[in-house]
Amino acid sequence: MKYWQPKYETMKHDELRELQLNRLKKTAASAYNNVHFYREKFEALGITPEDIRSLDDIRKLPMTKKTDLRDNYPFGLFAVPKRDVVRIHASSGTSGKPTVVGYTANDIETWANMMARNFTMVGLDANDVFQNAVNYGLFTGGLGFHYGIEQLGAMAVPSGTGNTARQIEMMQDFGVTAIHCTPSYGLYLAETVREMNIIDQLSLRVGCFGAEPWSSSTRKELEDAFNIKAYDSYGLSEMMGPGIAFECQEQDGLHIWSDHYLVEVLDEDGEQVAEGEKGELVLTSLTKEALPMIRYRTGDITRLLKSECACGRTSNRISRILGRADDMLIVRGINVFPSQIENVLVRIEKITDQFEIYLDRNKNKLDEITVRVELDEGAFTGEIKDLESTRRLVEGELKSVLNIRANVELVEKGTIPRTTGKAKRVFDRREAI
Questions:
Q1: What is the pTM of this model?
Q2: Collapsing DSSP states into helix, strand and coil, what is residue 309?
Q3: What domain range is 28 assigned to?
Q4: What is the reported pLDDT for 95?
Q5: Is it the case that residue 150 has pLDDT exceeding 90?
């Protein structure tokens, strides 16, 4: 078994907890002493960093939300002088002020090493050629992966997004063995490669996919299309960027690097859920210098898994992201997650996992949900009764899971737009009526 930093990746649990406690104390002190926002939060709760005597004392500390970053835009949560910040990244700001994150030179080094761990974990090394087909710039995905590729010693191909024909040409000409992109774009690349009938001209063996939830069905489709192993990547800019958690070759949950992050999975009341139960992922950074984050509510819904893994690593593990707490749709008083709909669709033959959700209000001012889903190739027999049978089947399966009726619209494969970025799945038109 190959490791990048075996000392930390396979650390015994008691040693790891001691390391986490020492780093938690240091992080809390840095936030308290250098960030006015956190000092006010601590004082409001009547605590100081000296009150942290065990890891259980994390519960005494304040929560942090995305809105806190926007309220302190741009640099109000930085714990170091601006002269020590060597790079910033930022969100698009489409739902308000951008969230700006900063990095010291040590932060960049830490991040690169985490990414190199991830790449080693999925079987990559300095002999690989790695195509990074995501957006560079203020988005963390580009440079986050790029620095990790170089830290590993592999050849980086910074192809960025768009121009699919050119992306595939680079894969052929440069002998690309690993690729990083969103799963949505990966499916589009796969469709294009299949149409061009050039799969035997590619050298791909590993795909790293992230930035949006994706299903086991999508994994199988990507693996079959490219003849690769497809791995899930999780990250968020507030915690550093991509690579905070990553699948190993067991493909059984994502490892979160416990020497850098303290993990909580909490229910709606803020209590830690039992192992295997669903809750919101809350993370505390343990090594970030420029922007320490204490009990950051990610909004991502996941399950905490057993830390023991056949790969030998002892870090915390989480399930794939099951949805977003703030992506929850309320339809006639029923809570609906897009991931619930996806999980139903991937189990049904004759349809693909490409779908869109439309929310409207009917003439009676009642919410209506419509799921637009693509038919699989060869599913259309030309018989209207067969189409109707498939539509009724999908509607019935959705109702049994969602406890609400969903209209289903079947469309030809390729109808739903593919994208190089995050796929837009939900279209809420209720406010416009």
A1: 0.83
A2: coil
A3: 1-324
A4: 44
A5: yes
